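pls ignore typos typing on phone
NAP + seq
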Amino acid sequence: MSDGKERRIGLVTGGSRGIGRGIVLELARCGMDVAIVSVSADPAVTDRGAYGVKSEVEALGRRAVVIKADVAAEADWQRILDEALAAYGAVDLLVNNAGVSLKQRFDMLETTTESYDRVMGINLRGPFFLTQLVARRMIEQAQAGRGGPMAIVFVSSISAYTSSVNRAEYCISKAGLAMCNALFADRLAEHGIGAYEIRPGIIATDMTAGVKDKYDQLILEGNLLPQKRWGQPEDVGRAVAAIARGDLAYSTGQVINVDGGFHLRRL
Ligand code: NAP
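k done
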């Protein structure tokens, strides 16, 4: 992707581990420099977390910067963009990947406002307003004649359409991201900026580590997935890399299921 003239820049929230790390590494492999947003980034920790991923990117011959920020915090949104621009001068791809599940699962008849606000703040409110800022910047870049594909990615979930009554706010946040994708795709098309929703299924990360045994049974022994294996972060990373390269340039607003066929209705 990089022709030596204009470096392509990807900004990935939650790029410190799990799916976000998989996305960052695939973007680096296809020639992008990256900005990694992590809420817990610690420069003293270099063998894992955001600085560990930075080293992995550099080993692939690409540049990486770490931005310590909380995507739920209004005060951090502009700073995330400013730090990415200070490092690289442009952003070509924003991947809204950072997200959390519930600290504790509740029956939805018992869901608390505290849990609801936390999950919605990180998973939906933050991505909407961060995207708003980045989109304005991308429009300026397009008007200034920056070439190459520009896009926004929302990492939602099969929970955007699958009911789990013990984590209602997670499902609602992901359904909201699906509409963010449609809205930004519509609004930004005239500027040549794409928007895409990636819907991961069950991916092996810290988020699913606590339910590994349950999912091992459902995936490996049961009939939950047509493709009987766990998803890996690089499965999601490769889908994002296709968007970054511009391979889906005429498909704005598209929903990409990375779920081993979970979404298929079967008889
Ligand atoms: P994970 O392993 O728990 O990693 C979460 C990532 O989000 C970390 O990089 C974390 O940064 C970051 N993060 C959390 N809160 C943040 C905040 N307030 N501000 C900035 N960064 C924050 O999760 P994952 O499984 O990779 O999931 C990534 C995304 O995919 C999430 O949106 C999740 O909902 C979605 N997803 C996951 C699965 C799955 O099966 N794993 C399935 C469908 C969708 P720190 O390292 O600094 O904490």
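The pocket of NAP is lined by residues 13-14, 16-20, 37-40, 49, 70-72, 97-100, 122, 155, 157, 200, 202-203, 205-208 (CB under 6 Å). The chain has one domain: 9-251. more later
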